[in-house]
Design goal:
The chain is of the alpha/beta class. About 35% of the residues lie in helices and about 15% in strands.
Length: about 325
């Protein structure tokens, strides 16, 4: 499996939200411009749009995570299409509408590092720009890519200098526990996660961190990732990681047939490298699912932290998305 874009067209940032800000700037999106965003999205994406002074316009997605009534939008400068959980989004309607109005398309592939579509095209390379959050696939402190696939954009920003900061306590501890766990076959990572959640509940009342409403208006400052993160990205055995994730998806799928949950995707397409195993469920059934998959060394999380302007009118399927996280 090989990249379809040269390194000269790639820029690395600490976080994907920063790469998105840079993509919007290269697309000349600014004050008074509209950016189309799926309503099923994290607050971070909204913050990137606000950072460049643009207005986020939300479009709905159905239970298959495909856009609804996308052709009705006629006034926008850029659109964001999301490859949810590493599964390829059909870009046809996005491409047609962007061409009609003269807008640029950004492929949000935060979840799809290493994933391909049915034509063997790497996700993130199929639109004018691609955004990838590598730190959501690897246990690294930071690391995201901006892929500039539009050949008409000649003047790319200079790559920011990678920082010399230490890898950070959390990823270092996670990798250490994982190595021990593989030797003694005890769920050390799961125990550690449970202790952290208990502590968070005592302090905040929530098991998982939740972004404040102000997060949508946070100014995103561009920064470079750690040199140690880039080194780990370059050293990754891509084939082994692809096989691990696809095999884990199959195991989780077989286990969750015993639970009252509904997989979002009917099958795992060829070339797809899943971020995790997404499913619809009530909170109670999601907890049951978590108990069934714990022996695989994974956790179940609720996704996403919806934007404030979306929450009140969000359909039920937005609120019932859960993910068996493969990180």
């Amino acid at each position: 499996m090989s990249n379809e874009i040269g390194e000269s067209q790639v820029r690395y940032y600490a976080l994907a939200r920063q790469a998105l800000v840079q993509a919007l700037q290269l697309a000349q999106v600014g004050n008074g411009d509209n950016v189309l965003i799926p309503a099923l999205i994290c607050k971070d994406v909204v913050a990137s749009v606000h950072t460049v002074g643009a207005t986020p316009i939300f479009y709905e997605v159905d239970e298959n995570l495909a856009p609804l009534d996308f052709a009705k939008f006629l006034n926008f400068k850029a659109a964001i299409a999301v490859n949810y959980f590493g599964f390829p989004q059909d870009l046809k309607i996005f491409e047609q509408q962007c061409e009609l109005v003269g807008a640029l398309l950004i492929e949000d592939n935060a979840h799809g590092y290493l994933s391909e579509d049915s034509s063997n095209r790497r996700l993130g390379t199929r639109a004018h720009f691609g955004i990838i959050s590598i730190r959501k696939t690897l246990r690294i402190a930071d690391g995201a890519q901006l892929l500039v696939n539009d050949n008409s954009i000649k003047l790319l920003p200079t790559q920011l200098t990678f920082t010399q900061l230490s890898p950070g306590l959390r990823p270092t501890l996670q990798r250490f526990l994982l190595r021990i766990q593989q030797s003694i076959r005890l769920p050390l990572l799961d125990w550690t996660r449970s202790l952290v959640r208990i502590g968070r509940i005592l302090v905040t009342g929530k098991a998982l961190p939740v972004s404040p409403s102000s997060a949508e208006f946070e100014e995103i400052i561009l920064s470079a990732p750690r040199e140690s993160s880039i080194k780990r990205i370059k050293q990754l055995d891509e084939h082994a990681e692809v096989e691990r994730r696809r095999a884990l998806y199959a195991k989780v799928d077989s286990v969750l047939t015993k639970c009252e949950v509904s997989p979002i995707f009917a099958s795992l397409p060829h070339g797809c490298v899943p971020y995790g195993y997404p499913f619809y469920a009530s909170a109670r059934n999601a907890k049951s699912a978590e108990m069934l998959v714990k022996h695989l060394g994974v956790e179940v999380i609720h996704w996403p932290d919806l934007p404030e302007s979306v929450i009140d009118l969000a359909p039920n399927h937005y609120k019932e998305v859960w993910l068996v996280n493969f990180l």
